[in-house]
Amino acid sequence: MLLKQIFVDNGAPIKMHIHHSIANVNARAALSQRIMHSGGDPTASPQSARVILADPNTEVFQHLVKSYQGVPDKYIESYLWVKKCVEKGALLYTPLVYKNPGGRRPGEERTPFTDQDEERLCQWIATKIPYKETGGRTGNRLYQQLCEMAVDPEYVWVTRHTWQSWRERYKKNSARLDNLIAAIVDQKKPAHGEKGQYGYVRKAEERPKRAPRKTPRPRKRCEKSVEESLHTEEKVVGDINSRITSTPPIIIFPSVPPAQFEGGSQPSTSTIPRRSPDEEEMEDGEDNEEWQIRIGNEPPPTWVKRKTSDDEREEPPTPKRARSLDYSSGDQPRANPVSQTNSDILAQVNLHVIDQAISDIASEYRFTVQEVKEFYDKCGEMERTRARFQKMRLILSTISEDIGDEAV
Questions:
Q1: Could you tell me which residues belong to the region Disordered (predicted)?
Q2: Tell me, what DSSP letter sits at residue 48?
Q3: Could you tell me if residue 362 is inside a domain?
Q4: Taking CA atoms, which of 12, 151, 162, 355 is between 20 and 30 Å from 294?
């Protein structure tokens, strides 16, 4: 069935252009087929087309409407316009509607100013700017504030004119209206800067000054050094305890008998003046047998640097560690509960744990305590000392087996 040929003008097909704002390919193909079935030509360019079909939901549609608004015999239509025309069976363009361009219609008069309007205007200016030398009578804001007062029942009259009209009325008749304003000011005699006058506002509140923030007092260097030393000692003791599986010995400090004084009285410890660290160190050094000196042809003391063997030269040097105590002579460490500090106690606990570990290694691998102690003083590592004497015991066991086989 042949459709009604509605897109025809004087027997010629109406040229139409399908704008690229219609992005759907299937919609463009269906629209083109419907135009051709109804007698139109959808292949025209935008310049030669009489009707341009576009998507009304895009910004380009409004741009096309404004661009071709003044061009006669050129129409911008929606892609739905084709379907409406086919359903109605007629070519109907979108009608034009009248839009009021503004301004007064011919013959219409403005609202005239009355004497009462001028009197009210002078009252307003005399209240806000009583003295002309202050300035501001021809500004915009003065008359905008006047029109903003329309919500007040006493100022309903301001709606008769716009703020531009009130301003122009004063500007064109300022010489005459200034005399009326001066007469009103002479009656009220307001002072400069009274409340309510134009340009004067309330002074801002002074903000209270903030007190400067106090910076925290830095800790003294001595406090830091004491804390760091305690942490270091705790770390060393914890490391040794984690390596040694045996239970550390319980240390019992011998009590110091009180000194005897003449008269049978014993002074309190709080009144004894404490000596300097140098004097205490020198006094301790005199009684310490570990740091003896060589006299004549006697053998060198134990603290003299010993020559390293060939096997030990190959081992890389390690940092020196704390020396263990030598109890071979039967001497026991003396404790001074008055002057002994926490660091001394920790160091003494550390040395007793090392001596116990050295004794365990000597007993396990059947070596003397002196041999194990000498090697530990050189290397400073308990695990390395244990591995060393374990290896030596294995080598000695192998040698003894070989000797037994040869004897057989």
A1: 192-234, 251-339
A2: T
A3: yes
A4: 355
Query: Domain tally for the chain?
Result: 3
* Edge-first strand listing for the sheet containing 51-54: 16-18, 51-54, 75-78
- Are residues 315 and 408 both part of a single domain? yes
DSSP 354-407: HHHHHHHHHHHHT--HHHHHHHHHHH--HHHHHHHHHHHHHHHHHHHHHHHHHH
Mean pLDDT of 327-342: 50
Which pLDDT tens digit goes with each residue over 48-82? 999 999 999 999 999 999 988 888 889 999 999 99
Looking at residue 381, what is its pLDDT? 87
- Nearest in space to 177 (alpha carbons), one of 167, 188, 189: 167
343 C-beta neighbours (distance < 10 Å), count: 13
pLDDT tens readout for residues 344-358: 666 565 667 888 888
Euclidean distance between CA atoms 241 and 247, whole angstroms = 9
Contact 365, 394 (CB under 8 A): no
Domain membership flag for residue 96: no
Q: Are 149 and 163 in contact (CB under 8 A)?
A: no
- Quote the tokens at residue 65: 């409407």
Examine the domain organization and report whether 355 and 241 are in the same domain: yes
Residue 179 within any structural domain of the chain: yes
Q: Is the distance from CB of 8 to CB of 14 less than 8 angstroms? A: yes
CA distances to 116, 120, 142, 147, 182 from 158, in Å = 11, 9, 13, 6, 22
In a domain, 282, yes or no: no
* Amino acid letter, 156: V
Q: Are residue 79 and residue 119 in the same domain, yes or no? A: no
Helix H or strand E encompassing 221: helix 221-243
Same domain, 74 and 120: no
Neighbours of 73 (CB within 10 A): 5
* Residue 76: both structure tokens together: 């911008």
Domain of residue 163: give its range: 115-188
CB atoms within 10 A of CB 241: 14
Q: To which residue do tokens 């000596």 refer?
A: 275
User: What is this structure's pTM?
Assistant: 0.31
Residue written as tokens 């270091």?
Answer: 232
Answer for the pair 370, 355: CB distance below 8 angstroms, yes or no: no
- With a cut of 80, say whether residue 192 has pLDDT above it: no
Is the same domain home to 81 and 45?
A: yes
Is the domain of 361 the same as that of 407?
Answer: yes
245 lies in the same domain as 378: yes
φ, ψ for residue 104, nearest 5 deg: -85, 145
